[in-house]
Structure formats: structure tokens, C-alpha cells
Amino acid sequence: MKALVFKAPHQPIELEELPAPQEGENEVLVRIHAAALNHRDVWMTKGLYPGLKEGVIPGSDGAGISEGKAVILNPNVNWGTDPGYFGRNYTILGMPTNGTFAEYLSIQRDRLVEKPAHLSYEAAAALPLAGLTAYRVLFSKCRLRAGEKVLISGVGGGVALFACQFALAIGAEVYVTSGADWKIEKAIEMGAKGGANYRHDDWHKILHKASGGFQVIIDSAAGDGFGQLLSMCQPGARIGLYGGTRGNINKVSPHLIFWRQLEIYGSTMGNDQEFQEMVHFVSEHKIEPVIDSVFSLEEAALAYEKMNSGAQFGKIILKID
Amino acid sequence: MKALVFKAPHQPIELEELPAPQEGENEVLVRIHAAALNHRDVWMTKGLYPGLKEGVIPGSDGAGISEGKAVILNPNVNWGTDPGYFGRNYTILGMPTNGTFAEYLSIQRDRLVEKPAHLSYEAAAALPLAGLTAYRVLFSKCRLRAGEKVLISGVGGGVALFACQFALAIGAEVYVTSGADWKIEKAIEMGAKGGANYRHDDWHKILHKASGGFQVIIDSAAGDGFGQLLSMCQPGARIGLYGGTRGNINKVSPHLIFWRQLEIYGSTMGNDQEFQEMVHFVSEHKIEPVIDSVFSLEEAALAYEKMNSGAQFGKIILKID
Q1: Interface touch B266/A258, C-beta < 8 Å
Q2: A265 and B CB contact within 8 Å
Q3: Domain check: are A109 and A39 in the same one?
Q4: Chain A contact for B222, CB < 8 A?
Q5: What is the CATH number of the domain that holds B225?
Q6: Is A277 a member of any domain?
Q7: Ranges under pLDDT 70 in chain A
Q8: Could you read off the pLDDT of B28-56 as tens digits, one per residue?
Q9: Domain of B42?
Q10: What is the pTM of this model?
Q11: What is the ipTM of this complex?
């Protein structure tokens, strides 16, 4: 079979011809039809991901056919017994265990969930990691409800876009931020009420005034701007943090946190039940994942480059015919 | 009647002879037998409290007799309709409305709660503000359970000591920090399992190792040390922040927050139901508030000085015979 292989940090991912995998105990073979890239796939190539193992097939997101059924794959490996947080043996599909950037994958049978009928394989492959992360932070952690005002930072990324779509689907009032005006405009076309470019001066004051303050904020930047997000919160607001692309949090007023009774939730990925719920939610609300671009396995280098550039709006898909 | 009066910022609180108050609508007269100081009383004298009004009798905490019944006073004024956070008209007894540093106070009847039978007036007066703040942050926000490991920073302050006592009462494993070794020793005498002096190098590493990590942390310092508190958290830990004596939060790793699925709750004071629950909890568990010292109204300047010094261990009481 064709497969992409992680050779070593700072070396390109290589397309290789490998024997198809053997089914292990409780496992079943899946013919992957589409996969999707995540930031972690790029971080691996830079040596910036823990527990790297050479010779592994990367890829956390995938959809395909198994035993005649169209399925998408739950990327959790060994979440553990506590729904609140993953256990010590938790990993994500695609490192250190083989992932979805191949024609075939042998995987535990309980990782398979029926593909939503309204989605193509490409669209379904966009869902798992980003959809799960968005679902947990937005609903399980921040408990977003219809009619509430929610700010989603860095729209354009996979998680942020799903958060945007999920929030719109339940009838929340969505605002976004981005460093690119065109991404804000695209989000508004999708149904967001407004947005602001965080490269402009006073962006947070403008957004605060326009919205009247937020009940929920979903962020993956952290950094020096985190305090500005908090300054836009209504009393009792919930803030979900699922990443930290801008590094350490600084200059945050504790007074703002305790006086406004704010709640800050760290969140990443989600448990197996949340995965099931997320796929069901996508089916129920007929959500169509935003796809930035589709590449073949042969074009993997281009796909990785696009992911690395940060210029995408939506998921980057690998189509595996 | 005798009463302490706030004249203006940077002027001493004065003892005056005033007419006893008239009962307003739905109000009832309370003969105050004991009151307690809080940091806010000192901040007012420094002009560091919002909405200062000259000529007001300060004091948030009080216990006394009303209509023949021994009562303690709920210091919430107009919490509002949402149990999650106080509304716009919320204030705390003792500024801008007259408080407990006087022989008599006229107050809304629904502010009175029966004094726990096992407590003296002095001990009961220690409870309201600090006990309510500790109860909400520890139980309503951080959901502390028996057997869990909890770290309480800055032990010696009123809220921290109640948090310590409440946590011990339900069977949690309590650790403390302080800048003074003798306060840590006192907390250990009370039942705490261990503690560390945050002025020593590597205090957080030592405490992390001794405890194996915390499920709950209760803090009112914030500042540059907040990230060190987070570094001692077990996955899924809850952190309650009810103050910010060390100023802005800096150098906090977002990775720690999202990867360990931490929950950070801002909290201050508590709603009326929590006040009732707190007093009931104190009765049920026969908790005896820690009293640092007792002064008369005539000795108010000494009491304020002691509060300002930060040298106290427990509440500073004004006895009003």
C-alpha cells in the first residue's frame, strides 16, 4: 500500500510502498479514503512533538470503509477511565501508533463511528481531531447555550472554524478574531455577527463595544493578548483555552478574574463519548466542514507547506483513492 | 450609641457618639455584640476601595441580638437574581451603607441568620465575609471532596484559615503556604498535613513532591507565583482565585492549563444561599473560627494597625459591650 512515513525530525515526510497492515486483536482493517492534516503533523517534522518515533505513519484524521460500512475514525488511543482528563497512556492516532496517511489502517473496532450520511469522505475526514477539540471546549467545558455571545479567536484554524459552526448551529451569537481581514469576512459570510483584526490598535475595545461583552470566549493563542480577551468578558463568563501559539500568559489582572467570577478551562481533544456526541451533532445539524484544499498523497509536501504557512481557512485534506 | 465613623481617606477612623438608627422598611434593629475587621476596612482608610462615602459606619461582619434572638449578619447587600455572580447594585455591608462597627445597626430582616449555638458572639462575628468567601470558592467553585489534596496559600488570613478548617472538616488532605514559618506550624497543629514557606527557593518543587500534586488550589495572591501553583496541579485540578495581593499574573504556561485540563475559577464573596449553607456547615461541623485578637471600639486604631501589618493569624475582633 501507499503510505506517508515519518523518517526523522527535520526530514521530509516520505511516500513509500509498504505491506498492508495485519489485523491485531480486536482490530479491523479500514480502507482510508481521505485524511486530514493537523498542526501536530507539522510540529512532528520540526521535532516539536513529544514521544516521536521514526518509521511511523502519521495522520490523526481519517474516513474510509471497513467491512462494507462508511466510517470515520476516533483518534483517541487509550483515553483512560476518567472522562475529565486523559490518563498516562493516552496518545493520539498517528504518533506513536500508525495513523491515517495510508491506504490501509488496522485499528481497534471500537474506534469506528458511522460516517454522517451527508458528508463526503473528504469532509468526514476533516472532522475528528478538530471537531472533537471544538466540541469539548465549547460544550462540555464552556457550556455554550443558544443566544449567548461567544468570541472565537484565530478563525481559520480547524478547531476555531468548527467552534464557529457548532456555535452558530445552536443559535449562539458568534464573533471572531483573526490577523487577516479576509478570514473575518469569510466567517461573517458563514453567519458570524462580527469580528476584529487583532493586528489593529484597540481591536478589543472595538469588539467589546460592538458585542456588549462575551459570555464565552474560545482561544488557542494565550500570550500577552489573553488579558485583553478577559477584559471583554461579562460577569460569570467562561473562557476555553485549547492551545498556546503565542506562548506564556502575561499581564493578566487577577481582579478581573475574581471580581467578574470568570471561569477559565484548559481543554484539549475530548473523551470517547464526546467523540460520539460530536459526530451525532454534526449529522443532526448537517454541518459541512470547511475545507481549504485537497491534495493527493503524492502532493503531501505541498499540503504540509500549506499547513505550516498558516494561510489556510479550513482543513487541509489528503485524498487517498 | 458608640460607633466608628469613616471620615475620609488617609484620616483615622473616629469613635463618635451618634443617635441609634431608626428602623426602615422591612428592617429590624440589631444590638451588635461583636464585629470583625476585613482587609477592605483597611483599604478604605487608604482610599483604595471603590465608591467611598464619607460619614459611613464601616464593618461587614457582625453578631448580636435582634428581637431576643442571637443572630449573625449576612453582609451581602443586593446580590441580585443570578446565583452565579452579583448584579450591578451589589455592595457589601459597611460601605456605602452603614455597617457593624457600632452598638446598633438597622438592617433588612432577611439578612439575619441564627447564630450557631456553639459560638460566642466574638467567634460568630468572625464568620460572615471570610467564611462566605471560603465556602463559595472551596465548595461551589472548586467542588472539593473528601480525600482530595488541597493547597491553601497565604494561611493566616481570614479566608485562607476558614478554607483550611472547612477542608479539614470534610476530610480533605490540606497543605498550606505562608511567608512565615510559625503560621505553617500553627496550620499543621490544626490538622494540615504539611506546608512550605514561599520565601524559600524551590518551595513549590518540595511541596509538589511531598503532596504528589494537588486536585484543588485556593489562592489570593496571583502575581508571578501563580504559574508555580499551576505546576503543582494534578490533571483536571481546580484552582480558585479570590484575590490578587501580588498583582498581575505573569509567566503562566498555557500548555500546562490545556494539557492538564485545569479549571481556574475567579470567586469573591458568595450568594445568599451560600451564606445560609456556610453557617449551617459551621454549626454541623462545630467549627471554631480562629481569632487572632480582640479589641474594644476604643482600641480601633490598634485593631486597624494589626490588620494592616499582616502579622495576624485569624480574625481581628471588635467587642462591643
Answers
A1: yes
A2: yes
A3: yes
A4: yes
A5: 3.40.50.720
A6: no
A7: none
A8: 999 999 999 999 999 999 999 888 999 99
A9: 2-127+289-319
A10: 0.95
A11: 0.95
